[in-house]
Specification:
Distance between the termini: 28 Å
Number of domains: 1
CATH superfamily: Nucleic acid-binding proteins
Strand content: over 45%
Oligomer: single chain
CATH topology: OB fold (Dihydrolipoamide Acetyltransferase, E2P)
Shape: elongated
CATH class: Mainly Beta
Structural class: mainly beta
Keywords: DNA-binding
Largest sheet: 5 strands, antiparallel
Organism: Tunturiibacter psychrotolerans
Protein name: Single-stranded DNA-binding protein
GO molecular function: DNA binding
């Protein structure tokens, strides 16, 4: 079994949305991440807002 680990640092775009199904809980949130690079001697800034989804068997894990 393979496991990937990702660390995102940024600002929450909205409140986290928690939805529950039978025995699972899904948490969805938007995280604004900022990056910059230099082009032609000037810094260019870029903001990306990926949608992150986390699932858990125990709904209490996301409170």
């Amino acid at each position: 079994m393979y496991q990937n680990k990702v660390t995102l640092i940024g600002f929450l775009g909205n409140e986290a949305e928690v939805r529950s199904t039978d025995n699972r809980s899904l948490t969805t949130l938007s995280l604004a991440t900022k990056s910059s690079y230099k082009k032609d001697g000037k810094y260019i800034e870029h903001t990306a807002i990926p949608r992150c989804v986390s699932n858990s068997v125990l709904p209490e894990a996301h409170t």
